């Protein structure tokens, strides 16, 4: 049986979208984060889990608090 790993990147964008924010990645986003377009698609579709480093990079880009992201990541370890 395959374990479900919650999509943290999607959760971050949902939090932002509640305030009317709609994110469409552009070349600037890919350059600043260092996340390639294919990898970003994998993260959004939850094909592959995000690393802690990727979570922190995306959090920094969207100006989220690191503590919130690390808390989200630790919830994943606790639930598994």
In a nutshell, what does this entry contain?
This protein is mainly alpha-helical and 80 residues long.
What report would you give on this structure?
The chain has 80 residues and is mainly alpha-helical. It has a single domain, classed as 434 Repressor (Amino-terminal Domain) (Orthogonal Bundle). It has helices at residues 8-17, 27-33, 37-45, 52-61, 66-79. Helix 4 runs antiparallel to helix 5 (66-79).
SSE topology sketch:
Blueprint lengths: L7 H10 L9 H7 L3 H9 L6 H10 L4 H14 L1
Distance from first to last alpha carbon: 13 Å
How much helix, percentage-wise, in residues? 55-70%
Low-confidence segments, given as residue ranges, are none
Beta strand count? 0
Which range does the strand content fall in? under 5%
**Number of H- or I-type helical stretches:** 5
Quickly give the structural class. Answer: mainly alpha
Note the run of SSEs as H and E. HHHHH
pLDDT averaged over residues: 78
Give the biggest beta sheet: none
Tell me what the CATH architecture is: Orthogonal Bundle
At the first level of CATH, the class is: Mainly Alpha
Q: What gross morphology would you assign?
A: globular
Rg value: 13 Å
Number of domains: 1
User: What is the multimeric organization of the chains shown?
Assistant: single chain
Q: Which fold name fills CATH's third level, the topology?
A: 434 Repressor (Amino-terminal Domain)
């Amino acid at each position: 049986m395959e374990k479900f790993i919650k999509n943290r990147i999607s959760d971050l964008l949902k939090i932002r979208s509640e305030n009317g924010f709609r994110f469409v990645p552009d070349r600037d986003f890919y350059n600043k984060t260092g996340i390639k377009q294919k990898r970003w698609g994998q993260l959004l579709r939850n094909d592959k889990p995000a690393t802690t480093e990727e979570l922190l990079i995306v959090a920094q880009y969207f100006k989220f608090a690191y503590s919130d992201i690390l808390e989200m990541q630790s919830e994943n370890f606790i639930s598994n």
